[in-house]
Design goal:
Elements (H helix, E strand, L loop, with lengths): L1 H15 L4 H16 L3 H12 L6 H14 L2 H13 L5 H17 L2 H18 L4 H17 L4 H10 L3 H7 L1 H19 L13 H14 L1 H15 L5 H19 L5 H34 L2 H10 L5 H18 L2 H18 L4 H15 L7 H9 L5 H25 L2 H11 L1
Helix pairs in contact: 1-2, 2-15, 3-15, 4-7, 4-14, 4-15, 5-6, 5-12, 6-7, 6-8, 6-11, 6-13, 7-8, 7-20, 8-11, 8-19, 8-20, 8-21, 9-18, 9-19, 10-22, 11-21, 12-13, 13-14, 15-18, 16-18, 17-18, 17-19, 18-19, 19-21
């Protein structure tokens, strides 16, 4: 146990020095193997076996689909569609940003894809309409968290695969929290923009013209709006698996982009596929090293010892849940959502089940907490990505606006998911039990 503890401190230190998360865990794993005398053949083949997963194919396919949808002009048409409903309200453009990230999350399952696709269009538009650039960037960063909750969610696929629970049930567990967070963000945005004198509002139009505009934007976005219906309807209707849905979404984006919207080029599609392959390779390396470390931790009974440590303070279910929330938030500040959910499923899930928490309920707790960690410094990959998309802004200009959405919108939803199981389990109980 002492060797594992020292190795984990080493992992955290070298991550803070800028070493990629996957390689940091790999170094920590090999330190444990060498210091303890364990045979590397004990941990490495186990990690490879876990990577030989049909379900895991959904990750690179959804990553690829997110980039293809951006090139296919799907994201712009989704924004125009939501603008036709909300553009005439002060703060409506901010609501469009939140809703567009939510819809895009229902297609791609990726926060980074939502930032790249929605943020690259919305941030310049919001700045032009009088929104401060820092506020626009912070709003996009916070809204990308919703894309990680709305199924099909890449982090949830990873958690379900590691924990060996139903992916469909896990998807349903964060659908209600994702919608609640979307509503909370929209309300917070409306309140904050009321104080911004510079924010412009689209001119009022007669009702017939407004309805004509809604109809026109709906027609233009018809194929884009059909995509979440195809993906989610196919999954929950039992037509295809999440992995097949990921493949279908990529094929659909190519067909729409090349032959219907005619915005995608063969060169752009090729570059997108190459970039997706690189990203998928990085994810696979990350998964391999973390699965290797997880195997070692199970051997040293780290989950059991951590359970005993927590139960040394309290056996009260609600206090244990609070401690798990704190651990997950801290974990999310240091590692990305993919690696965090693997560790959570391997190490923290046994603690949760020992106090009577349903694994599906804990999946929702884990993904919501770790998604918040993605926009919480010091690591905060989605927050920094939004800053780059927003024009390489200094961190202090957009972290404060983002913090309002984190504290007033995300945290209450996380607490509700944690302490009111119905928020995460109602759809699971309704459709799958």
């Amino acid at each position: 146990m002492t060797i594992v503890f020292i190795a984990m401190i080493l992992v955290v230190v070298i991550m803070l020095l800028g070493v990629p998360v996957g390689f940091a865990f790999g170094l920590g794993g090999f330190v444990i193997l060498m210091a303890s005398g364990l045979d590397p053949r004990f941990a490495i083949p186990a990690a490879f076996r876990n990577l030989e997963s049909y379900t895991l194919l959904a990750l690179p396919l959804f990553i690829m689909a997110g980039g293809l949808m951006r090139d296919a002009d799907i994201s712009k048409r989704l924004i125009a569609f939501t603008m036709s409903f909300l553009g005439r309200i002060k703060g409506g453009l901010g609501m469009v940003c939140v809703v567009s990230c939510t819809i895009f999350g229902a297609i791609s399952g990726s926060g980074s894809a939502a930032i790249a696709a929605i943020g690259s269009v919305m941030i310049p538009e919001m700045v032009e309409q009088g929104y401060p650039r820092g506020y626009s960037t912070g709003l996009v960063a916070a809204s990308s968290m919703i894309a990680l909750l709305i199924p099909p969610s890449i982090p949830m696929i990873v958690f379900a695969m590691t924990a060996q629970i139903s992916i469909l049930a896990a998807f349903l567990s964060t659908l209600v929290p994702g919608v609640l967070m979307m509503i909370a963000y929209c309300v917070i945005n409306l309140i904050m923009t009321r104080r911004m004198a510079s924010v412009k509002v689209a001119p009022k139009t007669p009702f017939p013209q407004m309805m004509a505009g809604i109809g026109r934007s709906t027609r233009h976005a018809g194929f884009a709006l059909f995509m979440p219906i195809l993906v989610l309807g196919g999954i929950y209707g039992g037509v295809f698996t999440p992995t097949e849905a990921a493949g279908m979404s990529a094929v659909y984006a190519v067909l729409v982009g090349l032959f219907i919207y005619k915005k995608m080029t063969l060169k752009g599609m090729t570059n997108n596929i190459k970039a997706s392959m690189v990203t998928a390779g990085v994810v696979m390396i990350l998964l391999f090293f973390i699965l290797m470390v997880s195997r070692i931790m199970v051997t040293y009974q780290v989950p059991q010892q951590l359970t005993e440590f927590i139960f040394g303070f309290t056996t009260n279910k609600w206090l244990v849940l609070m401690m798990l929330n704190v651990i997950l938030l801290l974990m999310g500040m240091l590692v990305d959502d993919v690696s965090g959910n693997i560790l959570s499923a391997a190490i923290l899930l046994p603690i949760a089940t020992s106090v009577g928490i349903d694994p599906i309920h804990f999946a929702a707790i884990s993904v919501t907490n770790l998604s918040l960690g993605n926009i919480t410094p010091p690591c905060a990959p989605l927050l920094y990505l939004a800053g780059m998309i927003g024009g390489n802004l200094p961190l202090n200009e957009y972290v404060r606006p983002a913090s309002y959405f984190m504290v007033l919108g995300a945290l209450p939803v996380i607490l509700a998911v944690t302490y009111v199981p119905a928020f995460s389990m109602m759809l699971v109980d309704l459709f799958l039990k």
